[in-house]
TrEMBL record:
Coiled coil: none annotated. This is Fimbrial protein. The lineage of its organism: Bacteria, Pseudomonadati, Pseudomonadota, Gammaproteobacteria, Enterobacterales. Pfam families: Fimbrial. Residues 22-152 form the Fimbrial-type adhesion domain. It comes from Citrobacter meridianamericanus.
Amino acid sequence: MPVSQAITSDNHLTGDTTNLRFYGVLKRKPCHINGDSLINIDFGKVRIKKIDGLNYKQKIPYSITCEEYSPELKLTLAINGASYFEKSVLTTTVDGLGLKLLANGADFEMNKPVQINFDSGSLILEAVPVQKPGATLPEKAFSATATLLAEYL
């Protein structure tokens, strides 16, 4: 006897049934970084001879706001971009010049998320110009781009 006939034979199952209802709300993103606006950090005029990894340090002004806050909310934060001669140094448009990224005063490795507790406050992020050892920097404008990424756990 074919298998399909055995399954559809006159044997009746006894019991009860009910319907299942699945539902939810899709949200594009429950939290927003900096009101979804571009973050600009202007270093102004930087004297080449004063680049030492301390001078010209700039705070990266950002905020994270969440529509439905919960004390259990856990986030990771990362700065994604092209690293240069160190894992915490962002590549710029000038060969030999990078921007060292700091989180709470310590090196902040590029492309590596760190967990933050929303209740205990955000990380203090900073960037400071650094010169690649042995490089000679020309006089010219510089820029760099990266992405600040918050992911929800």
